[in-house]
Design brief:
This protein has 311 residues and is of the alpha/beta class. The chain is 44% helix and 11% strand. α2 packs parallel to α4 and α6 packs parallel to α8. GO terms for molecular function: endonuclease activity; hydrolase activity.
Length: 311
Amino acid sequence: MIRLGYACIRLDSSSNPNKKSTVAQLSKLSPEARRKKLRQVLQTNFFNLMDLLAYNVEHHIYLYRLPSEFIPLATHRITEDWDWAKEFAWDFDKAGAYIKKHGIRLTSHPGHYSILNTDNPNVLQATIADFSYHAQVFDLMGLDDNSVLVTHVGGVYNDKETSLKRFAEHFALLPESVKRRLVVENDDTSFTMLDVLTLCEEIGIPMVLDVHHHQVHNNGEDLYEYVPRILATWGNRRPKMHFSSPKSQEDVRAHADEIDASHFIEWVSRMSDYDLDVMLECKNKDDALLALRRDMHKAGVSVEAHALGQK
């Protein structure tokens, strides 16, 4: 059975856990006023997160991607004197207890500026700080290692093999809190499914298969031939995959607003023997998920786990 999820925001709500402030705004404030503003933003994000999670539970959605900006400017030096982890310990405990009670899986996807295989020491330092921040949020909530941080390999830098090797070398430098959560996704321009699978097997971490990325960037590999190997990288953890539909034939890399139901049903029917989570990456977020669910019901396809506790 599968579980469907969506990323970051509810489409029909302005109350999402992604409120933020800017460095320019904060720079105009005194240190005391700055911390007050940051506290207000984070408190709003916690309120909105709890509302969104309650909505998800009501609609039997147990997979959700937390926005990277949940903690405003968490890794910027302008917030270095703000101990948000200590100040909001109660809120982290409350959110974590709710998440665990209802069997929700929270994941994250650090931004495109975080590049582990970079050849720039400053970028590497910033990447490690960003990954560490994301891991700390999940640690503070008391979540297990199914709450993963999804990243891409990064740049090719004119030499794919060297770039893959550098990813492995830099992975070894990460703190254990990040290593236990980091997973790698194939991309749509540089590193194929097989590139990423080989890397993940080498360094012993899970691979997130992005079906759409594989369709637009591959070397002719049969996706289904490699699924058992991909799933094996997850060990005892529940595998996670990404699914989206191309915006158009002319713009195949861009994500469509909705999921192409016929394509999804064809794919998921071939995956019906597996228990896994599927993150839908599309513009219409939860609306697209609910629409896909209705389309599957009309087609008589019953592959989704709805009830709490179903695996």
